[in-house]
Design brief:
This protein has helices at residues 39-42, 87-90, 135-163, 192-195, 200-208, 212-221, 225-233, and strands spanning 4-6, 16-17, 31-34, 48-52, 59-64, 75-76, 79-80, 94-99, 106-112, 118-119, 124-125, 167-175, 181-190. The protein has 237 residues and is α+β, with helices and mostly antiparallel strands. The chain has one domain (4-229). The strands form 5 sheets. Strands 1-9-8 form a 3-stranded antiparallel β-sheet, with helices on one face. The protein is globular and about 60 Å long.
């Protein structure tokens, strides 16, 4: 369970955040949410697919990290074996929430007190002796702001994909070297045939909105699926 509280320099002054990566730190996940302005970094390491939020039914883009729940094939000992870590995982255990009421709502930084990265005596400090934010905390706040803006931009991107019927369901039927087979369902990819049939005015509108490049990045990223399959083949089960 998560226990989020708005970050407070008095209440949370002595807390520390464990860094590094590992299953014990909450990084054993099959996929991580991503957004169009992050696709350039994501597609260099991970396949980009789309899936639905089980609570809202809304679509979101995801960087695929494994083939089954709680499987992250990029975790190696206490490190992350890729040149880029998805922002939604970099930001842990912080979250952007909204403060105020009605039209006065504004983003605020929240902290999950139950997250395994939160510690009383181990890791990076959040505040210095004078109560000011540390460089570590400032970096996380900057990341949260970038993530918040990216996810807001993503809403229009997803709406546009649906408007032009550019998402199609995909089932990944994979046979591994050890004889095991996986049928991964619940994901969607860019409908390439439909994409290549779009007229010039539609393509222009996608480009002007900043959506066309991410679409093609998502298509190109599927070549990274071979790397994830090979990572799974190297596992000793």
């Amino acid at each position: 369970m998560s226990q989020y509280e708005v970050l407070n320099k008095e209440k949370h002054r002595h807390l520390r955040i464990k860094t590094g990566y590992g299953a014990a730190l909450g990084d054993a996940v099959m996929y991580a949410m991503t957004y169009p302005t992050e696709f350039r970094d994501i597609q260099s390491c991970y396949p980009i697919l789309f899936t639905k939020d089980p609570n809202t039914g809304g679509f979101f883009a995801a960087a695929v990290l494994g083939f089954e729940p709680d499987q992250n094939l990029f975790l190696q000992d206490n490190s992350w074996d890729a040149s880029y870590v998805p922002a939604v995982l970099q930001r842990q255990p912080f979250l952007i929430a909204t403060g105020g009421e009605g039209d006065n709502e504004s983003p605020v930084v929240s902290l999950d007190l139950d997250h395994p990265r939160v510690s009383q005596d181990e890791g990076e400090a959040l505040f210095d002796a004078e109560g000011g934010a540390t460089e570590f905390l400032n970096q996380k706040i900057a990341l949260l702001d970038k993530l918040h803006r990216g996810l807001q931009h993503s809403r229009g991107f997803i709406d546009t994909l649906l408007k032009h019927e550019l998402l199609e369901q995909i089932t990944l039927d994979i046979a591994f070297n050890d004889g095991r087979k996986e049928s991964v369902q619940g994901f969607y990819c860019i409908a390439e045939e439909r994409l290549y049939q779009l007229k010039g005015d539609v393509l222009e509108s996608l480009n002007q909105a900043g959506y066309l490049q991410p679409v093609f990045m998502a298509v190109a990223s599927l070549s990274r699926m071979r790397d994830i399959i090979e990572r799974r083949n190297r596992l000793r089960l």
